[in-house]
Design a protein that fits this description.
Shape: globular
Radius of gyration: 22 Å
CATH superfamily of the largest domain: Mur-like, catalytic domain
Number of helices: 15
Strand content: 15-25%
Oligomer: single chain
CATH class of the largest domain: Alpha Beta
Length: about 450
């Protein structure tokens, strides 16, 4: 398939964070772009403002005639859509070219120098840092991000086509469509067991991904992972290693030891050592490209962050309110550790919306352990996303797994009042569902109390 021959691109699931980045890319190329999504969001509103057609009904007659021309229309879909989706089946049965987002990313990146970020956690932050520091140092790049970068206020950046930065997503084995020149693996924790069944199958997919790297390419791996590559870590024997780590005014200050040089007094402003590791591997990948390390270090200091990745909404001496995308026990542990490191001794409250019935079931004990580390916990109902309910699995089931005296199950409508009543000094909202919609309401309610 030659993308240059395509005039019209139709997206099924256009409001997804990765799908919308592709939609922006094709719009930038002056293609006709349209699509369906289940609900209206800020992302779909932004796409409409760009001149992209978006509708929210799964009906054939709402598709513009432009996109019913088989010869010059490409249909891109997300694997999360149900098998009985009417528009999807219309295009499939009419012999349109219907492909997954990952396959299109593979086509886009194959003629560029591709940097791919893989891992069960950290992909979005790492790829956003990488895009930022390469952009700051003048690299002509295109970046497809899995979150809204606060540096670009977008999940898509195009400043040239020589270099591409992408997330290598393990969900549905999507990353096996990529053939990167430089790649990293940040983590390999059990996840997406609804797809893989067992952790060993997930591990094998990462091994298969490493075989997709170009013969003269480079792989970076977090120290301790069971895959060979150039290692990175903190205060260990890694090839790229952070040394002399200190915290000054809520900023990390440290030295970086590389195989060839030492960089002193590097600064990074995102809390949490998991974020620090993300910054380190982004730095290492950019160094591997040949970008001067001292310039990259200065760019690293100016990274603002990614929305819903440890995003501050209130930050005063008496009250802190942070929102984070954490939806896996490992991510929740990382958020807790960052809070403990930055705000020792302050009472904290975690509001958590579980994501997927299957993930809640598969990691129930781990969720219970992770959440029980917080001083107070509020659980919301499980966000189903692409799934139907599983009998016996709900937030009350999760609550019963927890060894915690101060945990409550609430509706979203009750949140602001309960949060204020807790008198917590550090408040976190966490989850990958629609909990982000509640953030502004909570911020406003708390602002009256500050």
């Amino acid at each position: 398939m030659n993308l240059k021959d395509i005039n019209n691109v139709f997206f099924i699931g256009i409001g997804g964070i990765g799908m919308s980045a592709l939609a922006r890319y094709f719009k930038f190329l002056d293609k006709n772009v349209a699509g369906y999504d289940k609900v209206a969001t800020t992302i779909t509103s932004d796409l409409i403002a760009m001149g992209i057609e978006v509708h929210f009904e799964d009906k054939i007659d709402v598709i513009s005639e432009t996109y019913k021309r088989r010869g010059d229309t490409l249909v891109i879909y997300t694997p999360a859509i149900p098998a009985d989706h009417k528009q999807y089946n219309f295009f499939k049965q009419s012999d349109f070219k219907v492909v997954k987002r990952a396959e299109v990313l593979g086509l886009i990146t194959k003629d560029s120098f591709c940097l791919a970020v893989a891992g069960t956690h950290g992909k979005t932050t790492t790829s956003s840092i990488l895009a930022h520091i390469l952009n700051e140092t003048g690299t002509p790049l295109t970046a497809f991000l899995g979150g809204i970068s606060e540096d670009f206020n977008s999940n898509f950046l195009i400043k040239g086509n020589e270099v591409t930065v992408v997330e290598a997503d393990e969900y549905d084995r999507s990353f096996l469509h990529l053939s990167p020149d430089i790649a990293c693996i940040t983590s390999m924790d059990a996840d997406h067991l609804d797809i893989y069944g067992e952790k060993s199958a997930l591990d094998q997919s990462f091994i298969d991904f490493t075989k997709r790297i170009q013969p003269d390419g480079t792989l970076f791996v977090r120290n301790g992972l069971p895959i060979n590559g150039i290692t990175y870590g903190i205060d260990d024997d890694s090839d790229y290693c952070i040394k002399n780590l200190k915290i000054k005014n809520a900023t990390y200050v440290f030295d970086v030891e590389t195989p060839n040089e030492s960089i002193r007094g590097v600064k990074f402003n995102k809390p949490g050592q998991h974020n620090l590791l993300n910054g380190l591997v982004a730095f290492a990948m950019a160094v591997q490209m040949g970008t001067p390390a001292n310039r990259l270090a200065k760019a690293l200091e100016t990274f603002k962050g990614v929305k819903r990745r440890f995003t501050y909404h209130i930050k005063t001496d008496t009250l802190v309110f942070i929102d984070d995308y954490a939806h896996h026990p490992t991510e929740i542990n990382a958020v807790h550790d960052a809070i403990a490191e930055m705000y020792p001794g302050k009472k904290n409250l975690a509001v958590f919306q579980p994501h997927l019935f299957s993930r809640t079931r598969d990691f129930g004990a781990d969720f219970a352990t992770s959440l029980s580390k917080f001083d107070e916990v509020i659980l919301l109902d499980i966000y189903p996303a692409r799934e139907l309910p599983i009998e016996g699995i709900d937030s009350n089931w999760l609550l019963k797994q927890m060894n915690h005296d101060n945990v409550t199950l609430l509706s979203k409508e009750e949140l602001p009042e309960k949060i204020i009543a807790s008198q917590a000094e550090v408040i976190l909202t966490m989850g990958a569902g629609d909990i982000g919609v509640e953030v502004e309401k909570i911020r406003k309610a708390l602002s009256y109390e500050v």
